[in-house]
Amino acid sequence: MGFGDLKSAAGLRVLNDFLADKSYIEGYVPSQADIAVFEAIAAPPPADLYHALRWYNHIKSYEKQKASLPGVKKALAKYGPADVEDTTGAATDNKNDDDIDLFGSDDEEESEEAKKLREERLAQYESKKSKKPAVVAKSSILLDVKPWDDETDMAKLEECVRSIQADGLVWGSSKLVPVGYGIKKLQIQCVVEDDKVGTDMLEERITAFEDYVQSMDVAAFNKI
């Protein structure tokens, strides 16, 4: 398990592919796992690695709060795809090492055998990556649905919201949250496919139940 050397272009490509369908290194919220990987990167990923760059900029915004993020920071090799070998801790001072440097060296002339093997490995990696099925972009959205007053039938309000059906929309858990003066709002989770369902559509459909719904707001929005 691992990303390889995150200071190299190859390592950043592995990280970019790993984050293609994920918002974070582990789970659905920023954690010490993200901090451990973030600190292993020497500089922001290039623009063409947009999944890694999006994640990098997002985690960078937590710089002042990084110590308070949940989880326990583990060794870098504990994170990443299972089929990539971690090389960040490999010894580099053994002159009798028979292993071949797949990515070459600035100080030594690359042998023909090493060059051939490196090119074969890179070709295999690119071939494997090209055969991956297209990733469906999804988001987890937390909605706040507010009633008109404390006499609104909240069970009926939730029933109306859940009656909204669309391709790419799945409703999740919900709860009632007090907002004051005896009024409670409905807080409900849903998962959507980004290409099929948007927040504008959800707001239009939910507020159409005007006998029960006063307004709808997006409380949280996370890519998954």
UniProtKB/TrEMBL annotation:
Keywords assigned: Elongation factor, Protein biosynthesis
SMART domains, alphabetized: EF-1_beta_acid, EF1_GNE
InterPro entries: eEF-1beta-like_sf, EF-1_beta_acid_region_euk, EF1B_bsu/dsu, EF1B_bsu/dsu_GNE, Glutathione-S-Trfase_C_sf, Transl_elong_EF1B/ribsomal_bS6, Transl_elong_EF1B_B/D_CS
Acidic residues bias locations: 96-112
Record-linked Gene3D superfamilies: 1.20.1050.130, 3.30.70.60
Domain Elongation factor 1 beta central acidic region eukaryote: start-end pairs: 102-129
Residue ranges of the region described as Disordered: 84-112
Task performed by this protein: Catalytic subunit of the guanine nucleotide exchange factor (GEF) (eEF1B subcomplex) of the eukaryotic elongation factor 1 complex (eEF1). Stimulates the exchange of GDP for GTP on elongation factor 1A (eEF1A), probably by displacing GDP from the nucleotide binding pocket in eEF1A.
Protein name listed in UniProt: Elongation factor 1-beta
Annotated organism of origin: Eubucco bourcierii
Gene: Eef1b
